[in-house]
Fold these 4 entries.
Entry 1:
Amino acid sequence: MLFHNISLIGAGGLTKTNMNVRTEGVWITSIGPCNNSLAEARRVEKDVFDGTGKLLIPGFFNNHSHVPMTLTRGYGEELALYDWLYKRIFPFEALLTEDDVYWGSLLGIAEMLRGGTVSFTDMYMRIQGIFRAVVESGIKASLSNGLTGDESTVLRETAWYRETEQMQRDAKTSHGLVIANASLHAQYTSAPSLVRALADYARENELRMHVHLSETETEHEECKERHGKTPARYFADLGLFDVPTTAAHAIFIEGEDYDIIRDKGVTLCHMPSSNLKIGSGLADIKKWRDHSIRVTVGTDGAGSNNNLDMIEEVTLASYLAKGIHRDPILFTTGELLAFATRNGALAQGRDDTGLLEPGFRADLTVIDMNALHFQPVYDYGTSLFTNANASDVALTMVDGRVLYRDGAFTTIDIEKVIWNVYRVRDEKLAKLRV
Ligand SMILES: [Zn+2]
């Protein structure tokens, strides 16, 4: 495909206008100034995309999600965290089959593609259902089941073990779309012996790690009382961070935690919408960055966000940090974009994507800036995390394949997905009311 006469944010975060970008197969093959007319380009090329008034960027990497939680979007609003989880979410999730998870995942994937996301890092259960949705849709994902258990739990006898072993085999058949990860749900839902067993397993199997870290003050303080150390120190001591790790939230990390996280090369993932909605608090991503920690952005599950809009998430992250630090030039557009693209790609271990450069994978997103709320456009780059939202995405491409364009999905039958999501909802509600 030739993206003709388009604006883009290239390597180094620089915005360029009037560019031609070519993709062939799964790769970006050339980027250069546009010096022909659209009519001329269409005369010699088969697949030409008119980039007038549009911005091309690397697609988003949503670095922490629970994609099937689209099924629980809006279920149990206006409850405190404990009631929301124990009275609504956990009983609902206990009824979900692998097939239910598949339909919820397809809805979440459709929403992500519609918002310019090309890859996500997920933690859930019955993850073979997610795998099926990922491969059918053509999006990329790093998938894991979040391990929980007490002292009596034997790792190799758990559903977690079965699913994780299966996912490693499945991933090999996915043409690079899926990467199998290891995952611990959280410090407060697992015993130390299990954390150590998981760390050993991840190292032996060369798996990346995904974990919730210091999301709430209660979790953080109780760990200090129980173990005499912060969750970050506790995990580091048990070997959890000995493989490349992404830790979600990290709101209450303190003191030497910052050095542990940097020295262990742990990537942190920021999800301000979820943190605000649940009333957890706010992470200090300026401090993360200033400690040379890799910053990424995610949406969390649709139960606590409630959308999967990465543009909104990055804009909110930017505005919150600028407001808290009273510094309107705290982050450039290029830096914010790196949080949500290249940094996420590197956190997933995908070195060949997340940048608009020849030789990188064609995992791309086009933002249409012709809508009223962009007018008049002075600068396409700085209009991204100020004026845009998910509904401005015109095209999403993964490995050179167009998966979403102008309101239509090329791999997902969205009406069938929505019909099934309502079927699952009604079946579960009927059971929960018995
Ligand atoms: Zn989460």
Entry 2:
Amino acid sequence: MLIPLALLFNLVGLPGFQVPKNQSKPPAVSQKGNRNGKVFVVMYHHIKDGKNLMFRSATKFRADLNRMYKMGFRPVTVTDYVNNKMRVPSGKTPVVITFDDAHDDQFHILKDGSIDPKSAVGIWRAFAEEHPDFPVVGTWYVLPNLWGQEKLQRKKIEMLQGWGSEIGNHTVHHGDLRKMSDGTVMNEIAQMNLKLRKLGVPANMPFCPPYGSFPKNKALMKSFTYKGQTISHSSACQAGWCPAYSPNDKKNFTKYSLLRLHGNGRMYGIDWWLNEVAAGRCKVYKAP
Ligand SMILES: [Zn+2]
């Protein structure tokens, strides 16, 4: 590759700089940014030991945070991503960390009132204390169980929101929306939306259909009227296997079909895709 003339003049203009002999490639210009690069929307379910693809051990989850951090990723929410407002420092790469199903191992509070250090929130909070620029900012697609400690539901939502996270709707019964009538789909979506609003979640929250299975009438994921109330969602995501399109990629980006990738060690999971980034085969979004 030839060195672009402008770059060459810039470089040779620096005091004491000489273009090294035998160098045919320009130096990497990492500070340039890449606003069209791919965005990782990582999907976690259980954070504990387990065999199937829905599990990520606490140790592996901690290692994911560490590896992403070292590779320059910084957390944002789904809403930041779909609104193209991913405020990460120049040269850094946004990552959207999402959790589905509101399992107890994601957010558990111990009898003494402290956060279980083995739960996802406990692990992430500890990591964020050492790395304040990687706070607990993510999107939590919840079911009515809301992490399993009934009296602490509102408190947990407030804590997550206080750190910069957001809550999304994952329906009431976690059924396959594609197989339901429009009326049942509306019940599933609206009742959870209204429950979350009562718990302090903003009305126009993000939505995640169970199994990434869209209803036959896809418009229901966006908005409809239910018993006189407007039910609306700002985005909808899929389950997934690959990084998502940049919100600047007008041709491919769509708010109501966001791609995600699994937070696990299998093919097309987070390890696999981070290896692709490290090898230069997957170009990720980088803030200018
Ligand atoms: Zn789910």
Entry 3:
Amino acid sequence: MNITQQNSPNHWDGRKGWKPDMIVCHITDGSYGGAVDWLCNPQSQASAHFVVSRAGEVTQLVDLQDGAWCNGTSSTPSSAYYTDKSTLAAVRSRGVNANYYTISIEHEGMYSQTHGALTEAQQAATVALIRYIRSEVQRIYGITIPIDRQHIVGHCEIAPQAKPTCPGEKFPFDAIIKALGGTVTQTASVSVHTAAAPSPTASSDNANIRTAQQWYNARGAGIAVDGIWGAATRKAATASVQRGCNQAYGSGLVIDGIWGPATAAVVRTLRSGSSNAAVYSLQAALMAHGYSIGNSGMDGKFGAGTEQAVRAYQRVAGLTADGLAGKATFAALCQ
Ligand SMILES: [Zn+2]
């Protein structure tokens, strides 16, 4: 494809040891030329790898092997860019600056006018560009970027609080993924624009989260009961899952509150009818994420309320909403 090169000084050389596996779509909220100029201006301290115009032209500003300054995240819980506020499990679990492992595409458009919708030429150019990016990343890093909504994402999913309208709710993710031959599934981004389901990273006081925090404290966690999902609650939730596995399966895990390969290896799939100590830890983790598990509360029995909460969480977390709490669900809950 035809790509104009115009190098921006706003980047790191290299990616701090990370390899890119996530493509992030943005909206410029300005003209194509204006965006290219601004993202090449040292004063902006911002950039993207590519900018796509409404006419379908593409300019590259930053080499794929270098980190662009487009999705800066924060490790400070009070920041609107805090990694734990992302709706993407990978962003939360990695906890590092998302610029290390992302490739950014800016799309010319004004959110107030388009809400992220692309022109036909622009959409075709984006599809071709993503195809090109995937083949280059394969060639350079030996990585195949999956064609799905966990790897082709919006800025609003990296930083829902700071960037809720980038690239906009009409951005054609599904059409792009279909054109690339991928499978369309319901995703985390939906939760950003509808109030139907709570965010997996509720950022305001939530009674379910308080209940879980109290439950963890009754078991020695010693965390603040503030109704907010954050690093301390996550650690308590993971420790609780580890304890649950030890009690239910005799796993002998070290209870360190850190989700790792040892914990992932012993977690078993829980389903409707399951009843053991691990179910308590699942119920608590769902509540810690802000979900109601129904009237029976934390009873260690995987009933209808727990199943409903699992499905709701899975939908928002971008997992297959099958109501089975297996490794992927526990990993997402604990990371
Ligand atoms: Zn953006």
Entry 4:
Amino acid sequence: MRTVLPASGIVLALAAGCITSDVTGRRQLMLVSQDQEIQLGAQAWQETLSGAKLVASGPVAERVRRVGGAIAAVTGKDYQWEFALVDDPQTVNAFCLPGGKVAVYSGILSLMRDDNELAVVIGHEIAHATCRHGGERISQNVVVQLGLQVADLFVANRSDEVRAWTNGALGMGASLGVLLPYSRDHEYEADEWGLRYMHKAGYNPNAAESFWGTMLKLSEGKEPPEFTSTHPATANRIERMQALAAELTTP
Ligand SMILES: [Zn+2]
């Protein structure tokens, strides 16, 4: 009986740990609270940007904050939003951490034709946060870790250690979950909601076609930019965004 308990604990955690996203309406596994997620995001933000050359003021930093702020405002999410510009012309990248911490590198900004293209990228990153993709990934990692440990328990029969192991799994899941690239499903979701947000904020979602066209060209080069290694610019993704942009802009 003792060895069965942790396994049923996982089943209970899975049943009780599912929420319905208030953005997408999709059921998702969520073992961390929104507050925990925000805290983990803030911590990872400090660590990730500790060695980075941040641009605090000037027209370009203000542009990033203006476009980011306009899109964040239509999400209805009460996050501690931050939009940082990193001075690094070699890095073609942008990312978002849970709780609304968005970083844009000068290397990707220089490839953008206008604010609409910047809104494509920032909208996408913001959608990862509002759809709680970070928290979902942490939860998935926790279940994987717990599964491994329950397998151990069946052998060792040490059910009094379950609690400590669960906490250990949460720690491991969190450190992996915040920084790993998102799944393909999360990318599609962020594409969709990013376009909806930017359109609602007054930007033109048709800019997705030109921006992703640029990324597609770059990713065919010898050294594909960082952004396209975590965001493969597949024809399928671009087609879906074009279709949604057309739908949004058709009166
Ligand atoms: Zn993404």
